[in-house]
């Protein structure tokens, strides 16, 4: 057996994992035009059920906040709940476990994807360094509307309903998406949050909405089945923060206080702009299950698990093209590289047609 430490059982809170290889949440745009999961998604996720934990892709908690071309899934309608149930049933039938990543696109949304509705954000600052896919082709991001403080309880209530729907759909828990420049991350980082009052200024205030959402999810699932994902360094979606280590320390300490199932930490920056060491600050402040993500090789992942730094490692890039990633890692087999042209297309090619090792 290769990388033996990755194949010892562990627990992320109340989630019992048969191995320490986690499937990271991966947006793939295979839901239908009403954001309902499709039969393709049943096959795709069940193919990957040998992961210790499958984290489903970013899923719209609240209607009207599409941020990824209009074909990402939702969890706010009865049809979506029923369709997700077929996915979780298929994963469970293969002995897998699955949590749903609940998400709000924030300023990364676009009016052409959402019936003309202006995107919302903590501050009226648009994403400047990219364009987004819309039904009319690629378009510049729009200036978002600044959310009022009195609107934020409605956002929290929407996330709580999403957690309730995830439970009804058979998920084993939820992961709150607090990363990669979407709404909760926009509030957290000072590069995108310039507001005054109880949700702006200090780290404690900027993290307030994120932990109100986390607490709402805890009331549905219990802390032992709720995780949080953060990306304190990632500059994707035009994001930055003046003190990424400081926000890591604060968020990790708040997760520790709540006894979360796990903290899912993206350790780097897709574009290499922001650099800092955030894994050990997270470890020092959160004694629960820390899940590492971004660029880990199987050998590095095994070493970090052996050292006790990480409880598990989430793999994204290679889970696109290796449905049996856990088996391949155990066998020391070569990993297949994904076809970048099919990452966000809408059919089975490059989605469910990657072969297994056998």
Count the helices. How many? Answer: 11
CATH architecture: Alpha-Beta Barrel
Give the low-pLDDT segments.
none
Spatial strand sequence of the major β-sheet: 3-4-5-10-11-12-13-14
Biggest sheet statistics? 8 strands, parallel, barrel
CATH T-level fold name: TIM Barrel
Distance between the termini: 16 Å
Helix content: 25-40%
Shape: globular
SSE string, helices as H and strands as E: EEEHEHEEEEEHEHHHEHEHEHEHH
Could you name the CATH class?
Alpha Beta
How many beta-strand elements?
14
CATH superfamily: Aldolase class I
* Category from helices, strands and their pairing: alpha/beta
Strand content: 15-25%
Radius of gyration over all CA atoms, rounded: 19 Å
How many domain units?
1
Mean pLDDT figure? 97
Topology diagram in text:
Blueprint (H helix, E strand, L loop, with lengths): L9 E3 L2 E3 L3 E3 L15 H9 L5 E8 L17 H16 L4 E6 L16 E2 L9 E4 L2 E4 L4 E2 L5 H17 L4 E6 L4 H6 L14 H4 L1 H14 L4 E5 L13 H15 L3 E5 L12 H7 L3 E5 L4 H10 L4 E4 L1 H5 L3 H7 L27
Parallel strand pairs: 3-4, 3-14, 4-5, 5-10, 6-9, 10-11, 11-12, 12-13, 13-14
Antiparallel strand pairs: 1-2, 7-8
């Amino acid at each position: 057996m290769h990388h033996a430490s990755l194949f010892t059982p562990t627990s992320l809170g109340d989630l019992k994992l048969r191995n320490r290889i986690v499937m990271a949440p991966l947006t793939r745009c295979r839901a239908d035009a009403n954001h309902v999961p499709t039969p393709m998604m049943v096959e795709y996720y069940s193919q990957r059920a040998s992961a210790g934990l499958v984290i489903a892709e970013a899923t719209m908690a609240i209607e009207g906040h599409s941020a990824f071309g209009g074909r990402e899934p939702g969890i706010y309608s009865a049809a979506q709940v029923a369709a997700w149930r077929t996915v979780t049933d298929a994963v469970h039938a293969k002995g897998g476990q699955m949590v749903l990543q609940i998400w709000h696109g924030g300023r990364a949304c676009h009016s052409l994807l959402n019936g003309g509705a202006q995107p919302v954000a903590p501050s009226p600052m648009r994403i400047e360094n990219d364009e987004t896919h819309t039904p009319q082709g690629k378009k510049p991001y729009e200036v978002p509307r600044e959310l009022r403080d009195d609107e934020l309880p409605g956002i929290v209530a929407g996330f709580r309903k999403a957690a309730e729907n995830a439970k009804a759909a058979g998920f084993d828990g939820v992961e709150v998406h607090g990363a990669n420049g979407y709404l909760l991350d926009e509030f957290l980082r000072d590069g995108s949050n310039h507001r005054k009052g109880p949700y702006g200024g200090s780290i404690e205030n900027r993290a307030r909405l994120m932990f109100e959402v986390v607490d709402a999810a805890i009331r549905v699932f219990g802390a032992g089945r709720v995780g949080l994902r953060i990306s304190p360094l990632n500059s994707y979606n035009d994001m930055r923060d003046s003190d990424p280590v400081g926000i890591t320390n604060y968020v990790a300490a708040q997760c520790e206080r709540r006894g979360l199932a796990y903290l899912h930490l993206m350790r780097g920056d897709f574009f290499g702009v922001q650099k800092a060491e955030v894994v050990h600050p997270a470890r020092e402040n959160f004694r629960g299950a820390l899940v590492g993500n971004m660029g880990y090789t199987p050998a590095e992942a095994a070493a970090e698990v052996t050292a006790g730094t990480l409880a598990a490692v989430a793999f994204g890039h290679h889970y696109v093209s290796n449905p049996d990633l856990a088996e391949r890692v155990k066998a020391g087999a070569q990993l297949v590289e994904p076809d970048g042209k099919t990452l966000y297309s809408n059919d089975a090619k490059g989605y469910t047609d990657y072969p297994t090792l056998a």
